[in-house]
Amino acid sequence: MITGKDEESAAIDRLDRQILHSLRIAPRVPFARLAAALGVSEQTAARRYQRMRTRGLVRVFGQADPARMPGTTSWALRISCRPGAATAIAEALARRTDTAWVTIDAGGAELTCATWITEDRRGLRDGLLHQLPRAANVLSLSAHQVLHQFAGRGEANWIAADDQLDAAQRERLLDGAEHGDPDSGACVEPGDGALLTAIAHDGRAGYAQLAAATGWTQRKVALRLAALTGSRAVRFDIDAAVTLIGFRAVANLWFTVAPSDLAAVGARLADHRQLAWAAAITGATNITATALCRDAGELYRYLTTDVAAIPEVRTCETVPIFTRAKQAMSLVDGGVLRGPVV
């Protein structure tokens, strides 16, 4: 459990939030360029990041992007379980390598998580969708295939709240960043296992560290990582301890809109600063999103202003997140990020 003293020690300021925002935009940005963009010394930027990482507030990671894997589909699951079983089920789901964003919602009555299903060589699919309905403590399962993730400003801006980088800072941050070729054809291969494990544990590991972990030369590491990130077969991102950095009213939103309005509404939602993620899904509710707000009052204002201003939204179900068991890759214990599941 996180005590009042722990929460006080985890408090972050404007510079910390701008570092988090920078890492959300460019997870492997060199500290020198990060410092220049923020107007601080390289030592200060590095020290602030390491302090947040040590305290379990942020983790930079790299992973093979499931969306780029042939035969793989992404799903959002809503799971109703027997009273008292939510924690055990959430912990079991969190330890799997094919899950992310495992949460206990609605005061413990429901769990949600993301999962990926991949066809085998025979074209058959197996995984969570087939295993969960047979679990004794699962009462019902609602599975929604993710059809399209909406790209927008919100997916990077949510973490900084009102302390976002301005346009000039973003330009300096991305100056010199490499731009790969998504059509280059590079894909994850069995021989990349050691590299993927290393970047899962530390997405900011240097080439020397990665060379030591893989047994490759630094040049080979650099070339292989550039090829995989350039083709988008591998991506880098951050996990953040959302409660400890100040977001205490977090909710999953389930929207219903007409099919003719799906693209426009999704694009508009994705630009909302309060939404870290928005996607089109199958099912009666055809857009899902995750809202992160400072408190219940801010969540209420968001729903009654920004969401209410979109007339095409027919319904919006708001399901508060009670606790988190896993972020994209990191386990969560008492609100603090722990090691990755690899």
Automatic annotation (TrEMBL):
<feature type="domain" description="HTH asnC-type">
    <location>
        <begin position="12"/>
        <end position="53"/>
    </location>
</feature>
<dbReference type="InterPro" id="IPR036390">
    <property type="entry name" value="WH_DNA-bd_sf"/>
</dbReference>
<keyword id="KW-0238">DNA-binding</keyword>
<dbReference type="GO" id="GO:0043565">
    <property type="term" value="F:sequence-specific DNA binding"/>
</dbReference>
<dbReference type="GO" id="GO:0005829">
    <property type="term" value="C:cytosol"/>
</dbReference>
<protein>
    <submittedName>
        <fullName>DNA-binding Lrp family transcriptional regulator</fullName>
    </submittedName>
</protein>
<dbReference type="InterPro" id="IPR019887">
    <property type="entry name" value="Tscrpt_reg_AsnC/Lrp_C"/>
</dbReference>
<dbReference type="Pfam" id="PF01037">
    <property type="entry name" value="AsnC_trans_reg"/>
</dbReference>
<dbReference type="GO" id="GO:0043200">
    <property type="term" value="P:response to amino acid"/>
</dbReference>
<dbReference type="InterPro" id="IPR036388">
    <property type="entry name" value="WH-like_DNA-bd_sf"/>
</dbReference>
<dbReference type="InterPro" id="IPR000485">
    <property type="entry name" value="AsnC-type_HTH_dom"/>
</dbReference>
<dbReference type="Pfam" id="PF13404">
    <property type="entry name" value="HTH_AsnC-type"/>
</dbReference>
<feature type="domain" description="Transcription regulator AsnC/Lrp ligand binding">
    <location>
        <begin position="255"/>
        <end position="321"/>
    </location>
</feature>
<dbReference type="InterPro" id="IPR011008">
    <property type="entry name" value="Dimeric_a/b-barrel"/>
</dbReference>
